[in-house]
Amino acid sequence: MRQVYLDYSATTPVKEAVLKEMLPYFTENFGNPSTGYKIGQTAREAMNSARRKVADLIGAEGEEVYFTSSGTESDNWAVFGAADAKKEKGNHIITTKTEHHAMLHSCEFLEKRGYEVTYLDVECDGRVNPKALEEAVTDKTILISVIFANNEVGTLQPIKELCEIAKKHNVLFHTDAVQALGNVPIDVKELGIDLMSVTAHKIYGPKGIGALYIKNGVTISNFMHGGEQENKKRAGTENMTGIVGFGKAAELAKNNLEAHIQKITELRNYFIDQITSKISDVAVNGSMEHRHPGNANITFKYIEGESILISLDQKGIAASTGSACSSASQTPSHVLSAMKIPIEDIHGTLRFSFGDFTTKDDLDYAVKELVHIVDRLRSISAVSSKKGW
Fold it and tell me: Are 211 and 55 in contact (CB under 8 A)?
């Protein structure tokens, strides 16, 4: 059966060059970078080289990049570390209703321990109104966290403007840039970001390795305790194979960024144009002007997204009903709910995402099958466009 992968926002395949870079660190270059003898120092040099490559991708200094196990750990470290370090100043955190669950659940955890959290509404396109952020800041606010590119609908937030508000009030600003990394230009210095979460497996690197950018001069409490790894900030023997792979993936992403963005933007627009012209009663969710170049979040009215997904899978096509981290949940998407999309439409929504290995032929095949699947499912659905939900 033909296989077409349209879920790059969930994860990406490891590129051959990345795997090649990693392999020696499983065997001959297996040293612990914390040791003082030659094979350990060889590992340390490779680790620091990878750190600089990740830093180069985001406009940071090497010493500002701290390796973690994932984007989720990075989010947790940012919010818990800032909350603990700034507790003498206040106990108020501001985030949005459309964050990744790694941030939302961390904030809910802190609320149970006496912190106050403001969850900002978003506009119908998923963007935060900077004025709403400004109005939410109090003299007790210690952290603002707004996702860079939404993991479901791909909406890009006005990060620079939001950072300026945070700086004006002397509040730390964190962003989850897991989806944005390698898909949009990021310069943490130019944007004014204090803390930023990233991960390797969204940019053709391995799973199990992420990083937290901590701006020089910003102090947050440690999340992991033990040894003195990561400049005494994050204990635990480093995942050398993952780190080396992350570094190579970051290097490739930086060198290929412009061409990558152009390619997946063209594929996304082509896919959306084909879907909207060949299938009736569909809607594209999220901002088209401010959008992740490889994201197409589409509502197919009057049918269930899960049914479409199962039918696509039977044809070898992989897509998603939303966030890969919550795709098994039957709860309506909190992102689409916050964007005021009717619940009946939410249940008929799929996320398609495109990457370096996607071809126009893949999209033609997917569109052809979607036309048949949607027509078939609507023909047997109890709900019709005339009757409504």
Answer: no
Residue 112 inside a domain? The answer is yes
Q: How far apart are CA 209 and CA 158, in angstroms?
A: 27
The CB density around residue 276, as the number of other CB atoms within 10 Å, is 13
C-alpha 249, offset from chain centre = 16
| Catalytic residue annotation | 325
The Cα–Cα gap between 35 and 38 comes to: 8
Q: What tens digit of pLDDT does each residue of 209-257 get?
A: 999 999 999 999 998 999 999 999 999 999 999 999 999 999 999 999 9
The total of structural domains in the chain comes to 2
For 289, residues 6+ apart whose C-beta sits below 8 A from its C-beta are none
At 170, is the secondary structure helix, strand, or coil? coil
Task: Residue 193: name the closest of 226, 224, 158 by CA.
Answer: 158
pTM above 0.90, yes or no: yes
Cα–Cα distance between 347 and 302 in angstroms, integer?
A: 9
Q: Do 35 and 170 fall into the same domain?
A: yes
387 part of a folded domain: no
Residues 126 and 164 in one domain: yes
